[in-house]
Amino acid sequence: MVERIQSELLRTFLAVADTQSFTLGGERIGRTQSSVSTQMRKLEHSLKVNLFVRRPYGIALTKEGHALEAHSRRVITMLDATTDVISRSSLQGSVRIGIQEEYGSSILNAALAEFSQSQPKVDTVVRCLLASEKLAALEADELDLAVVFEPDELTQGTLLAKEATVWVTSMEHSPHLIHPVPVATYGNTKWSRDFAIPSLQRSGIKYRVSYISDTFGGFLTALRSGLAIVPLSRSVIPSGCRELTKVDGYREIDTCQVILHRNPRSQSTAVEAMWQALVTAFSQHTWRS
Length: 289
Known about the structure:
Layout: H1 7-19, H2 22-29, H3 33-47, E1 52-55, E2 58-61, H4 63-87, E3 94-98, H5 104-118, E4 123-127, H6 131-139, E5 145-150, E6 158-170, E7 181-185, H7 190-202, E8 207-212, H8 216-225, E9 230-233, E10 241-243, E11 254-262, H9 269-284
Parallel strand pairs: 3-4, 3-5, 7-8
Antiparallel strand pairs: 1-2, 5-11, 6-9, 6-10, 6-11
């Protein structure tokens, strides 16, 4: 029979998972490194699995460790919510999120709706930044949570989804039938030069850059007005528009992981609740394959 797990062990486990270190995790919760090590050995023994991979520069979670992390956050959030139900009327403060603009009208709406039910007096600050800017803001303690597109590699954050970026055209205006094809690109990132434009070149598409914008809203304007085809995440293609596929002579631009990063210095109940609300909203979103 698997032993019952104490919530204290899960809290210690999450501290270690967030800091990738027994020593730093212990400092966060006021325990010594040896005490944390003992607790984690006890947790692994109770579950009869290895939760960590020991490395010279710290630790990483195993597959079982990542699974436990997601469940642990839900359990701890529910436990903390028991107290919050009584005290939430006096809970104040703010949660700072960095997220892609294209997720604002769908996934973020769902997350904020759930969050507002449990934290009605907590202010929310949302910033739409480039991936590098969001990670820098986390490091500078200017964000609590950040949703970031990352290459399909191992990461220390929480995997929310895998997302493909594709070329999209207006079904009413069909700008993809114009030669050369008018395309929209970002103006201040390497992504267009390294991924978007090369995907056209590999497909043999003759193109001209007719529109430059650094916002999702700007891309939608170009798309709906028929000014250009645009690169969009497949899950946010708007109505009246469609993906340009192999049938049209196009291919996916790239595929990446959508990762939720958390500032290890942000340990409030409100941040934990927002973390869970984002995880839930992404898990319930309908993803196009």
